[in-house]
Amino acid sequence: MFRRIILALLTLLAPLAATYPAARANASSDGNAQAARSRDEALRVAWSRAARLRRGINLSHWFAQSPGGDYSENHLRTHTTARDIALIKALGFDHVRFTVEPAPFFDEAHPSELNAEYLRRLDDALDMMLGNGLSVVFDIHPSDEFKLKLRTDDKHVEAFASFWRALARHLSTRDPEHLFLEILNEPMVEDAYRWMGIQARVAAAIREGAPRHTIIAAGPRWSSADELLRIEPLADRNVIYNFHLYDPHTFTHQGATWGAQYWPYLKGVPYPSSPEAVASLLPSIENESARGALKAYGDERWNAERLERMIASAADWASKRGVPLTCNEFGVYRAYSPPAARLRWIEDVRTALERHNIGWAMWDYAGGFGVAVRKDGSAEPDPQTAAALGLHTQKLLGR
């Protein structure tokens, strides 16, 4: 009797059991399709928002790189003012890259506890920029010491991720169409594989804090175009990738007192380069490293075509992966570069970027590379640099 009951139940359940694998497969297929649609939508959003980052300028030495580490309220209130932001908008820029040193509000022992007073000052600056109709790339721009720790210190990486999660949560109430969150300026991690892991970890923390905002990511080792080619895109699709372009440094950083040991010995270096163009300078350079670098610069024949090839390689990387791309730093140190050569290099880079539909942000507003020059504490625009950037020179001349 009992056996007959069991056989009857099995007979009744058999058709249901037969449909279970198919139902499970359908559910899995539906889930995969939904995830694919979500990824496609996130990528569409990133592409759409990248159109807001066509022509930008970096705001240096304000909330980052302040001389003497001065981030007092007086410095933050007076260094870059409403007049400066209005001028940037009038020049024709559509966005600013807002460089932010984390030290004043980052405590590695308590990375999620952000200094409320400093956040208020950041909010005031964001209100001023966004209120003038500019999009803002919020760029974490720390000291070299901060970045070097990321090479080997996993606890530092976790603290950085926790810091970004809390900061992203604070910023998440702002319009995601106009505020972009850049993970880290010019990583100094040499190992591309480690940097990809760090970047993925921090990007996930940012996404937890700000689910709707677009993230800006980069390659390792100072974010150069060549280093971008060594990484693969994040799983998160709402991401824009960026690179920096200062090649060749022998020209763009001539006379600079930071970075390479030989830069300070170079002055009046021409562009484009050729052996003939640098020949007259070589005998006057006593420093052996500087002389060797200048000779190599001449032999390498840097010109618009060579810059074009470098930018094309980054554009090809992005095209093959279907991701949007920007160049959010490029420029030439003004102090010792021949003015006409500097303007030509800027125009060559800018036009090549635009040929490849790559948005850009020049370094910087009114610092050593500036589109403006400070006179008696006030920034005045440089019409020639603005013209090299394809900006509104007529408005400038009428000021």
What does this entry look like structurally?
The protein is of the alpha/beta class. The protein has 2 domains: 38-247 and 304-397, Glycosidases (TIM Barrel, Alpha-Beta Barrel); 258-301, no CATH class. Helices cover 49% and strands 14% of the residues. The protein has helices spanning 2-50, 73-78, 82-91, 116-131, 144-149, 154-171, 192-209, 225-228, 249-252, 275-278, 288-300, 304-321, 339-355, 383-388, 393-397; strands spanning 55-63, 95-100, 135-140, 179-182, 214-218, 239-245, 325-330, 359-362, 372-375, 378-381. It has an 8-stranded parallel β-barrel with strand order 1-2-3-4-5-6-7-8, surrounded by 5 helices. A two-stranded antiparallel sheet has the order 9-10. Helix 6 (154-171) packs parallel to helix 7 and helix 12 packs parallel to helix 13. The longest helix has 49 residues, at 2-50. The N and C termini lie far apart (103 Å). Mean pLDDT is 93; it is low at 5-10.
List the helices and strands and how they pair.
Elements: H1 2-50, E1 55-63, H2 73-78, H3 82-91, E2 95-100, H4 116-131, E3 135-140, H5 144-149, H6 154-171, E4 179-182, H7 192-209, E5 214-218, H8 225-228, E6 239-245, H9 249-252, H10 275-278, H11 288-300, H12 304-321, E7 325-330, H13 339-355, E8 359-362, E9 372-375, E10 378-381, H14 383-388, H15 393-397
Parallel strand pairs: 1-2, 1-8, 2-3, 3-4, 4-5, 5-6, 6-7, 7-8
Antiparallel strand pairs: 9-10
Helix pairs in contact: 6-7, 12-13
